Amino acid sequence: MSDELAGFTVGVTAHRRRDDLATMLERHGARVVLAPALRIVPLADDTELRAATRACLDSPPDIVIVNTGIGMRGWLEAADGWGLGEPLRAVLGSAHVVTRDPQAGRAVRAAGLRVGWSPGSEGHDEIVEHLRGRGIAGRVVAMQLHGERQPDQTTALEAAGAVVIEVPVYRWAPPIDPAPLHRLVDLVTGRLVNAVTFTSAPAVDALLRAAGANGDAVLDALRSDVLASCVGAVTAAPLRQHGVPVVTPSRAHPAALVHALVDELPQRAISLKVGGHTLVLRGHAAVIDGELRPLAPAPMAVLRALAATPGRVLSRSALLRTLPRGADEHAVEMAVARLRAGLGTPGVVQTVVKRGYRLPVD
Asked: What are the DNA-binding region positions (predicted)?
């Protein structure tokens, strides 16, 4: 186990592979909050998927767009269940296969098919431009959807003269238990998580829907104190439309997403020399002379306020504004006492009589 993310709290909105993502983050020392924003509902018995499969067999596609690995695997598994697996593989094997991301490419190759082309950006627009360049007038394009229709992409392909067969392999549905997602909304607005990871664009919309009237507060937090990390450009698009800065890895893979956080979050740590000691603020913890000291939210809020203006005295009323609503000046004294106990190092938080508290920076 490494400790690059020790002291940081990361929210995970993924449904599928959430445990894998959480395990990787925890191996780097992070505290993880699991809050699936959506769940995947397979459509193996769905009449629309069966009809789309029949359409591909009746009018073999010249081009196949594979948007997700799980969608490709689910399509073939459903076809196998109907006794149509081999005919479908034969049809797909004769087509020019376009895969949107590496996971889709791996699923295609695992099925014994060949990848014809993949976009560098993993974006729908680049796929459309590539196909336009090939000339698709009168061609049949089968497009495996990922959870919902992509009307803009379908319209653009049809405008170029293609006949598009949409293949709905699964759909997104709300989580069975919405409580963890609502808790994550509260943690984000309270700046009690340091980062939130997203592995699909619909998860972004689901988080904002769960926030309801607090949607603007969630976006404000993501624009400032809470890092948004997305697995790829398509996932990041809804956040960027809201003006949220996003970190994305060089390749669309959960492990790469974790490494992006390992690179980015420690850079946000605040480091000071205080009373002859090295003090580093990392998420929900302080590091004193190399020793990690986890802190409760109220003491951590006080420490962050003091560290924002090192050496300056902050009054009890000023520190009160950093604590949850309803707190009083006695709560400030309690938070300072808990902060000192949590740090376990005398002299880091200094009392200035009748004025307040400060960090005596060197």
From this structure: 269-361
Token look-up 């996003």 returns 246
Within a domain: 3:
no
User: Are residue 123 and residue 161 in the same domain, yes or no?
Assistant: yes
> What does DSSP assign to residue 38?
-
Q: Of 88-92, 150-154, 316-320, which gets the smallest average pLDDT?
A: 150-154
In this structure, the number of other CB atoms found within 10 A of the CB of residue 45 comes to 10
Last residue of a domain, one of 153, 172, 191: 172
- H/E element holding 335? helix 329-343
Cβ neighbours of residue 141 under 8 Å, at least 6 residues apart? 61, 62, 63, 64, 65, 131, 157, 162, 163, 164, 165
Q: What is the DSSP string of 220-251?
A: HHHHTTSEEEESSHHHHHHHHHTT--EE--SS
Q: Distances from the Cα of 23 to the Cαs of 3, 122, 255, 280, 298, in angstroms? A: 13, 26, 10, 25, 28
Which structural domain, as residue segments, surrounds residue 294?
270-358
Residue with tokens 């109907």: 82
Residue 250 to residues 43, 246, 290, Cα–Cα distance (Å) = 32, 13, 31
